[in-house]
Amino acid sequence: MITPVSSSISGINAALQMQANSAHNVTNANTDGYKSRVASTEETKTGGVKVTISENKQPGPVYDNGYGKTAEHSNVDYARERVSQINARSLFAASVASLKTYQEMTETVIDLMA
After folding, report:
1. 69 occurs within a structural domain
2. How do residues 28-53 score in pLDDT, each as one tens digit?
3. Containing domain of residue 82, as a range?
4. Distances (CA, A) of 101 to 5, 67, 84, 96, 97
C-alpha cells in the first residue's frame, strides 16, 4: 500500500514529467521532421502515478523548403500541447492539495493526542 505522502509525490513527479515533455515539444515545434512525444499517465499497482512517453508517428505537413525540395515540418500541435500543460498543472495542484490535507490531518491528530 502506498502512503498519502508517496502518492502525492508520485503525482507531483508525474506532473513535472508531463510538463517537461510538453515544453520539449513546444521547443522543437519549428524543427523540420521533429516528431512530438505524447505523455500518458496510468495508475501503478501500488497506487502511484506512472508516466509513459511515446512518439507521435503522424507525419507533419510537407512544404517547399525554397531549394527546390520538399521538407516535412514537425507534427507538434500547439492546442494539444496547451491541453497537456493544463492537465499537468491540474495534476500538480491536486497532488499538492492532497499533501497539504495530509499534513493538516496529521497536525490535528497530534493536537488531539497532546
Report:
1. no
2. 999 999 999 999 999 998 888 999 99
3. 4-30+37-52+77-113
4. 10, 60, 26, 9, 6
